[in-house]
Amino acid sequence: xxxxxxxxxxxxxxxxxxxxxxxxxxxxxxxxxxxxxxxxxxxxxxxxxxxxxxxxxxxxxxxxxxxxxxxxxxxxxxxxxxxxxxxxxxxxxxxxxxxxxxxxxxxxxxxxxxxxxxxxxxxxxxxxxxxxxxxxxxxxxxxxxxxxxxxxxxxxxxxxxxxxxxxxxxxxxxxxxxxxxxxxxxxx
Length: 188
What we know:
Layout: H1 3-11, H2 16-36, H3 40-49, H4 58-67, H5 83-95, H6 100-107, H7 118-129, H8 138-147, H9 149-166, H10 173-187
Helix pairs in contact: 1-3, 2-3, 2-7, 3-6, 3-7, 4-5, 5-6, 6-7, 7-9, 8-9, 9-10
């Protein structure tokens, strides 16, 4: 899909703040894709649509999770996770994007999983480090992204897991699996 057409579609789904975030994720994803060998056009498309369902009604997302056979345990965790897998389904149904690599990158951008492709990793990290993000630890992750995609992801996941733990929030198992896989791979 053409960049401008995609941006026009998502603009109607997002707040102005989230649209600006999406543009930052898109530019960051293109840079990371170029740096780490992911398909640049797929990275651009996945980044544009990564938050497509962010502001959808929680009941609509709950119904999608149930009716589309997504993991039922998603419903036990923070609803902030839901917009990624629900979004992948809605993007496919509503925009005609059928590329499974793009849809998977959208699907996994909040939780990660233990079988992330380079494209998936690029979208996850771009969402975390885009220029509009300002929170403790983001600069360190940005610096690490210059030298290693996986090292940057490990640090981002450490920050996220610790943040959730400090708030007494449960951490989705796929997030731990993603973190563990990266750590094990770094040891080799």
